[in-house]
Specification:
Elements: E1 3-8, H1 12-25, E2 28-34, H2 37-44, E3 51-54, H3 63-69, E4 78-83, H4 88-96, E5 101-104, H5 109-121
Parallel strand pairs: 1-2, 1-3, 3-4, 4-5
């Protein structure tokens, strides 16, 4: 069974690159995407998803707002923030709103792919 991923990313080039790379590496299904906080929250609520990949800075709102909205999502759903702004303070703020992991786009993509691979390998 593929990992169902919802992408919250306002940059179409990054969104397409993530989609292609994840699809090449793992059994995944991109179940939707959004470019802003409100759009993401509305779109994600009725969907079945296993993993949300959320950028921190969006066209409207922020990834922290998306994380807050799904803080009590419970396992097995995971929410990862993928950003270029991976400071120690931001990691703390993300943990406070229930983010499972934060990955720096510029230096931690391998770690992100490892984490997605772990999810994919644990699927029945």
């Amino acid at each position: 069974m593929p990992v169902r991923i919802f992408l919250v990313e306002d940059n179409p080039v990054i969104r397409e690159s993530l989609t292609e790379t994840l699809s090449d590496l793992f059994s995944v299904e991109i179940v939707g995407f959004a470019e802003g906080e409100t759009e993401a929250i509305v779109a994600m609520q009725p969907l079945e998803w296993d993993l949300a990949l959320v950028d921190l800075f969006l066209k409207q709102g922020s990834g922290l707002g998306v994380a807050r909205a799904f803080k009590s999502r419970g396992p097995p759903r995971r929410l990862f923030v993928v950003t270029n702004y991976a400071t120690a303070d931001m990691r703390t703020r993300c943990a406070e709103v229930g983010v499972d992991a934060l990955f720096d786009k510029s230096v931690e993509l391998d770690a992100l792919f490892d984490a997605v691979g772990e999810l994919a390998s644990s699927r029945p």
